[in-house]
Design brief:
The complex is a heterodimer.
Chain A: H1 21-29, E1 35-36, E2 48-53, E3 58-63, E4 68-73, E5 78-88, E6 91-97, E7 103-110, E8 115-122, E9 133-141, E10 154-155, E11 162-168, E12 173-178, E13 183-188, H2 189-192, E14 197-206, E15 211-217, E16 225-231, E17 236-244, E18 250-264, H3 298-301, H4 307-316, E19 318-320, E20 326-327, E21 332-333, E22 352-357, E23 363-367, E24 372-377, E25 383-386, E26 388-393, E27 396-402, E28 411-417, E29 422-429, E30 440-449, E31 462-463, E32 470-477, E33 480-488, E34 491-497, E35 503-517, E36 520-526, E37 534-540, E38 545-554, E39 557-572
Parallel strand pairs in A: 1-18, 19-39
Antiparallel strand pairs in A: 2-3, 2-9, 3-4, 4-5, 5-6, 6-7, 7-8, 8-9, 10-14, 11-12, 11-18, 12-13, 13-14, 14-15, 15-16, 16-17, 17-18, 20-21, 22-23, 22-30, 23-24, 24-25, 26-27, 27-28, 28-29, 29-30, 31-35, 32-33, 32-39, 33-34, 34-35, 35-36, 36-37, 37-38, 38-39
Chain B: H1 9-26, H2 28-63, H3 67-70, E1 86-91, E2 99-102, E3 108-122, H4 128-135, E4 140-156, E5 159-169
Antiparallel strand pairs in B: 1-3, 2-3, 3-4, 4-5
Classes of the chains: A mainly beta, B alpha+beta.
């Protein structure tokens, strides 16, 4: 029987075991060193090295045959361990654990310069003990009789904007995008079928103009740590993967991989700004603890409500397009995503029509004025609702409203194309399976029935891959700029820019893209295992503006708000070929 | 060798003193007045210098993010809380010169300083993007505005303190 590449649960839905420190210790005790699908390198066999790091450990290594080494940390007693080494041109990479402990190292040595980057890795350093922690030290290989070099490897934003397809020696295939200098976005093509992309905090370190080091920790998920050196010209990598998978099995292996260049999107820092680590590890004035970094943990912080709680909170507070308060002094709207919304339209006022969906009940509308309408499902009673409408492109109206009285507190975000007689509705709803306040979405295609307008019989708005791979920045208001990366046909990620306009924190969610016209796309994203929001936007690539409607239920109640942004096209990755329908085996 | 005509500095001073003595005796009241004026001028200059120093100290504390440490510079420290949106204040060299006026009794003063004020306003935490921005240490709107800083000072126990302070638009 043919199989599919898809997991039973996507990464953000897996209930990863909260492994105890003892369970982790037991699992680590059974491992002597990293595995490898490729032949390991004996580049160090028979050699001794003393690595000196700035503000970090000194590590005295003696390498034996058979992938064994002894290491003395900070002049202490030597400990024997198994290790795995791989080389990429002049760069040697090796990793080992310290037996009897939960910590180990991944070490990158540029044999041309003797400069070193050391990653100290450990478990049980965070609430979720399975999440691998890392601290980075820069240094050099001590050469007897020679002065210590002053140069160092260094954090960089030079990798920002790049994207690669990687295939490791053991078969794992991924798409990896680096739209931030602090986070990355990855698609597990072979492990998870490539439907969704996910994000993790990342480090980017420059060895030289051609070789860089990348790391990723799958925080909020398995906690697995990946680090690799990549040659940007040859598109080759050597690295390590350390952590526990969804079945709590230890993954500890070094790997070699080859890839394909997918493209480069724009960077927005000032020219000449190549600094890395754009997100400070600790707040201003505070000293970061060892391994500290800013990690976006939406699942940990989101409200998680039951259906009864959702009903109660919706009864207490439901709001659609509440008037925007003005922030004193700033003269900016408090609704932070509505700063560049632009004016709404009264085009619908006084009109009435029916939106006849192909696979959902028809919706009849009477628009009393520019902000009030009445709706009913055919044959039912009329219900009043507040709405707002925006004419993104001549004849194309985005409007939305809540459906009071519906058991799942539905909200509709609708694009009605009066030139074509077509309509697409993103129907948000609550009481979803994982958390009742987390929005779900149904997509309805259909036609507009209106006096004087003859709709098509067969033509409909359609899903599109024209946005796939694109990166588009959105400036919602002064101080709030993000970028969407449309990284799979069914998900997108969003990147938050720092004050220096470097990509910072990043997260992702399921998404879909519908083509309304050339250059006009209606899309949604779901903040699943995040804040539960359904975001919908109508992107106009001609005016480079988007208008949208957000639908969210949380402890403050149910809210529908308008949002709008000025956009910039940042580029497009060439990834459509990874999503062509195949006769078997899913993507790739 | 004749040395009688040799002029020395000492002899010059001696002669001068002899010549000046009768003049000093004649002009004593005006000299007293001049002395009072000098003293008053000196006191004014000292007060202005003390107020400038107080102003500079206050500026340093605001500009280094130590607004709390600026409170003791006020007559009533509890009134020394400052607009938390202000991040830095710099002299506006395109504006009017600083002005300090000491009251006649020397117990109060007024200062007016044209400034470029950098203000920082946090964006509302009403959406995921704003929350993420704040978490990474951004999520603020910074802008610089030209303002006039009007300050009232008072002297108590021989020391100047800030009595009242307000920004006004230029």
């Amino acid at each position: 029987m043919p199989g599919t590449p898809y997991p039973k649960e996507q990464m953000h839905r897996i209930a990863y075991t909260k492994l105890s420190e003892q369970q982790i210790a037991d699992k680590l005790s059974k491992v002597s060193g990293p595995k490898s699908a490729s032949p390991l390198s004996d580049v160090f066999a028979g050699k001794s090295l003393r690595i000196v790091t700035d503000k970090g450990p000194s590590l005295a290594y003696t390498f034996s045959r058979g992938n064994r080494l002894s290491v003395a940390e900070n002049g202490g007693g030597a400990v024997d361990a198994g290790y795995g080494a791989l080389t990429l041109s002049n760069v040697a990479f090796f990793s080992h654990m310290i037996p009897g402990t939960q910590h180990g190292y991944a070490v990158v040595i540029d044999q041309g310069t003797n400069l070193v980057t050391v990653f100290e890795l450990w478990f049980s350093g965070y609430d979720d003990k399975r999440e691998v922690q890392r601290e980075i030290y820069f240094g050099y290989v001590d050469q007897a009789g020679q002065q210590a070099p002053t140069a160092r490897h260094a954090p960089t934003n030079r990798v920002e904007g790049k994207g690669f397809y990687w295939k490791q020696d053991a078969g794992a295939e991924t798409l990896e995008f680096y739209p931030s200098a602090a986070y990355s976005n990855f698609v597990e093509l072979s492990r998870f079928g490539g439907e969704l992309s996910f994000c993790g905090p990342s480090d980017y370190i420059k060895i030289n103009e051609d070789f860089y080091i990348y790391t990723r920790t799958e925080c909020e998920f398995s906690g697995i740590f990946t680090a690799y050196v990549m040659d940007l010209n040859r598109i080759e990598q050597v690295g390590v993967r350390l952590g526990f998978d969804a079945n709590d099995a230890l993954e500890y292996y070094v790997f070699r991989g080859k890839g394909e260049w997918l493209g480069q999107h724009a960077q927005f820092e000032k020219f000449g700004d190549e600094t890395g680590s754009p997100v400070p590890a600790a707040a201003a004035g505070q000293t970061p603890a060892k391994g500290a970094r800013r990690v976006y943990r939406p699942f940990k912080t989101m409200a998680k409500m039951t259906p009864a709680q959702v009903d109660a909170v919706c009864a207490k507070h439901t709001s659609a397009f509440a008037p925007r308060a003005i922030s004193p002094g700033a003269n900016a709207p408090v609704a932070s995503m509505a700063g560049n919304l632009g004016p709404s339209t009264n085009w619908l006022a006084g009109k009435s029509f029916t939106l006849r969906y192909d696979h959902a009940p028809a919706m009849e509308y009477r628009f009393d004025d520019a902000e009030n309408l009445q709706w009913r499902k055919e044959g039912r009673d009329w219900t009043k609702a507040r709405y707002q409408a925006f004419e993104s492109s001549p004849g194309v109206i985005l409007f939305g409203h809540l459906l009071e009285g519906e058991p799942n507190h539905d909200g509709h975000s609708i694009v009605a194309d009066f030139d074509q007689g077509l309509v697409t509705c993103f129907n948000g709803y609550l009481n979803t399976p994982y958390f009742a306040n987390e929005a779900g979405v149904k997509i309805h295609f259909g036609v507009i029935e209106m006096e004087g307008l003859i709709p098509p019989k067969y033509n409909r708005h359609q899903f599109t891959d024209e946005m796939l791979g694109r990166a588009v920045s959105q400036n919602y208001a002064p101080g709030l700029t993000s970028m969407h990366l449309y990284s799979t046909p069914h998900s997108l990620s969003w990147i938050i820019f720092t004050n220096a306009d470097t990509g910072g924190l990043e997260w992702s969610g399921p998404a879909a893209y519908v083509k309304i016209r050339d250059g006009l796309y209606f899309m949604y994203w779901l903040e699943e295992a995040c804040n539960g929001t359904l975001g919908t936007i109508l992107v106009n690539l001609h005016t480079m503006r988007d208008v949208g409607i957000g639908y969210n239920c949380g402890e403050n109640g149910l809210n529908m708000n308008a949002l709008g942004a000025h956009e910039r096209l940042a580029g497009q990755f060439d990834i459509k070929r990874f999503y062509q329908v195949k006769s078997s085996g899913g993507v790739v | 060798m004749n040395t009688d005509n040799t002029s020395t500095r000492r002899s010059f001073l001696k002669g001068g003193a002899l010549i000046a003595a009768p003049l000093a005796a004649v002009a004593a009241p005006s000299l007293v007045k001049a002395d009072d004026e000098l003293k008053a001028r000196l006191a004014k200059l000292e007060n202005e210098a003390a107020i400038r120093e107080l102003h500079q100290t206050w500026l340093r504390r605001i500009n280094t993010g130590a607004a709390d440490a600026a409170a003791p510079l006020f007559s009533f420290p509890e009134s020394g809380t400052f607009d938390q949106a202000v991040r830095s204040i710099a002299a506006d060299h395109a504006g009017q010169p600083d002005m300090i006026e000491i009251a006649a009794d020397g117990k109060s003063a007024a200062g007016q300083f044209h400034c470029a004020v950098e203000l920082e306003t946090a964006i509302a935490q009403d959406c995921t993007l704003a929350q993420m921005a704040r978490q990474q240490g951004s999520g603020f709107i910074r802008r610089t505005e030209r303002r006039v800083l009007n300050v009232e000072y008072e002297k108590a126990s021989g020391a100047w303190a800030i009595a009242k302070m307000e920004f006004a638009p230029v």
